Amino acid sequence: QVQLVESGGGLVQAGESLRLSCTASGPIFSINLVAWYRQAPGKQREMAAAITGDGITNYANSVKGRFTISRDKAKNTVYLQMNSLKPEDTAVYYCHAIIQAGVVSTQPYNYWGQGTQVTVSS
Question: Which of 99, 96, 117 is nearest to 22 (CA)?
Fold first, then answer.
């Protein structure tokens, strides 16, 4: 069974950095896309950054120039490097992936991690 596990959240001060990790485990044929979403209290979940299977990246305007998404294909791991953090970046960050599970090509499914808390104090 495919699982996503996030790590790297924590409490930092404004201007500091954090790096989140999302590792996919289980029988994986292909990872088509991985995205980091975030949800602040009382707000809707929003996409912060995404990377496709071809390595194409996309960022929300609010994080452009500060966040960088990258991947280690050999480890099935995607990272979110977050620099110059602001109090408004405080949220639970979720990893989302579209994965073809199994040993042969199959229909892709959506998978979500459990979330990791990022808190930025002013």
Answer: 96
Would you call 60 exposed, middle or buried from its count of C-beta atoms within 10 A (0-12, 13-18, 19+)? middle
DSSP assignment, residue 88?
G
Residue 93 has pLDDT above 90, yes or no: yes
Element (H, E) at 13: strand 10-13
- Let me know if 13 is exposed, middle or buried by CB neighbors in 10 A (0-12, 13-18, 19+): exposed
According to the model, what pLDDT value does residue 104 have?
Answer: 80
Handedness of CA 102, 105, 106, 109 (dihedral sign): positive
The pLDDT, as a whole number, for residue 72 is: 96
